[in-house]
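ok so i was messing around last nite and threw this chain in just to see what happens. nothing serious, just curious
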Amino acid sequence: MFVNCLKTQNKLKSNKLKNLKSVLFLLIIFLHQLGFSQEFEVCKSEKNDKFALCKFGTPVTSYSYDSIVYLKDNFYRAYEKNKIGILDYRAQLILETEFDSLIYFPQGKNFFVWEDKKLSLIDSLGEFTVKNFEVLLYFSDSSFVPYSFVNKLDLDYPFMYIKSDQNTGVINSDGFLIQSVTNDFVWVQRNSRNGGVNAYLTMRNNAFYAYNVLLTPFKYFVLKDVVGVLENGTYLIKDDKDYKVTNSEGNIINYIQNQVQYAMLTNAKWVFVNSNGSLVSDVEYDFIERVYSGNEMSQFKAYLETKILQFDKDGKLIEDR
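result:
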């Protein structure tokens, strides 16, 4: 009996110790997330008025920075000659001081950086996830706006349609890459009425993959000579000089009545297209969308740099403002 009691007491002590360790572990994580786990202090040299990271008063970096500012998650902004870099929890310079501006995303522990007006996405190890891209479109579940109209980095929109070299992709405002820029083209399928995102379609070397909004692939097919995707999800192909509309099997679609639609070209520009695939005009826009009055589609709205153009159902210009 006495031995059993001792075993029980020891077991209770062991459980309490485990619980205490768990509480301490959670507390450490909590304090870390609040930013109280800062490892170093910032020191200033009396000799050259430069700054360094120090630990218990001893410098662990050189006194070479014009300023050092604690960021979050043990990252530090380091400033040198009006350029910005990043020091990490080891006091290692993971981003050289060569960027014009920088935004940190704690959710993904990555960075947006600017250099010579070009954006890049960089991970917490200082590796480029996407290098030198431009934002073409901002979008949410209910609206799309071209960058040319906003003309600034606007993180109020949850998603950004981007282009790097000749490839396109999608990044969210937390700095996560939703669709890789290794794709030749990404089409964001929208609900024509409420503008919400239904699916993503990616193209790479004539191979197409369709994903739902949870990024689960649900369709794969191969289609050659595609130069764009129409708003109803059909495909614009170019054979020699002629444009045609096809389905995903490559069957040409012949509409009885002409109905103008918009299409996004693989160069990420937007055009008006007749039902037979011919272009209404050669003008390429930054973005096109339908405008509804009640349940009826009333007109198209097209963005061209800083202008908003209004077109009727036949793609004819109504107003230029």
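not much to say yet. The helical segments are 2-34, 147-150.
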